[in-house]
Amino acid sequence: MYDINFFRNSFDIKKKIVQREFSMEDYSNVEKELEILRDKNPKIFNIETTNYCNMKCVMCPRTIFMKRKNVWIEDEIFEKVVDNIKPYSDEDLNNFWEWLDNNTKLNRNEVSENGFYFSVVSKCLVLHGYGEPFLDKYLIKRLKLCNEKGIPTYFSCTPATMTIEKAVQAMENGLTVLKFSIDSLDDESIKKIRGKRANYEDAMTKINKLIEIKKERNFKTIFVPCMIALNNDDKNKEMQQKFLDYWKDKDVFAYIKSQDNRWLFENDKDLENFSHYAKQYCEYPWTSLTVMAEGNVVPCTQISNNELVLGNIKEESLEDIWNGENFRKLRQMHITGNFPKGHKCSERCDQVKLFEYLKK
User: Fold this and answer.
1) Over the range 145-160, which residues count as b (16 or more CB within 10 Å of their CB) and which as e?
2) Which of 49, 247, 268, 339 is a Cys-bridge partner for 254, taking CB atoms 3.0 to 4.6 Å apart?
3) How many CB atoms lie within 10 A of CB 69?
4) d(CA 291, CA 48)
């Protein structure tokens, strides 16, 4: 989840920034205003419960860059993080969604990554990172703990790593949203994208079986079949439409995801980015943090190889890290553009930074 109150309360200054109503000389005023609006209690966007993965996805920085040791997050760390999470009430969420409908051009009901971000990610703790959640041997225990604390949960998986039995256990223990990554409609193509372990027919069989079980047992878990648009040519557009047509009469939220952050992987340089972030700047330093499997605290989900660590929950509290010097410096860098050479945000991320909207 992320700070829906900051998103709402900073919207007016964000519009002014994007419309270039500030100059670089105003950076200190922008910094002060965002600091006033920022919640001093951190919001946890996601927890990487494991970085074990047996897939070889061509678009994933794990495949290309990651050298971290494979681990499962320790129970003590997971519990410590979860203890810091206060889920939003229905009233909180409804007020946010009503404001979104009335004051922005963003639609939470849109069947897209934007709609998913505002309707699902806003309320859920994300339980994936650079590993496959179903390879976490303690996954069910973690879901049960979150469910007992009233924390909605979501994670994405490649169906090759999932068994029907474990998926059912996840639903039994309160998993709110389960996303399935399906990036082609034939076995040869999906293996080229996700690696030799991917199996198209097996994936579809599993998902359809889970749809049946969900109906029979009245589970509330939302299923999200998702296809990433890796190409925008006519052949791929036709495939994407067939994908959507296949799911249209089933109890799922199926959509095509644009490559909102490409991690410098380019299959088609003309691909459009439909994310709301394409029309603004990266807000992660103010809205939320991420906890990796080792306990490292990072600013967003794009830190695959510990290249931007702001603290570790074994050594400091999340509140101290969130309000500490490392986070303060990162926020200032995003406003001034004064990144050191080789910095992840400036050289290995394609999201626009706030300073790029300040007039020269």
Assistant:
1) bbbeeebbbbbbbbbb
2) 247
3) 7
4) 6
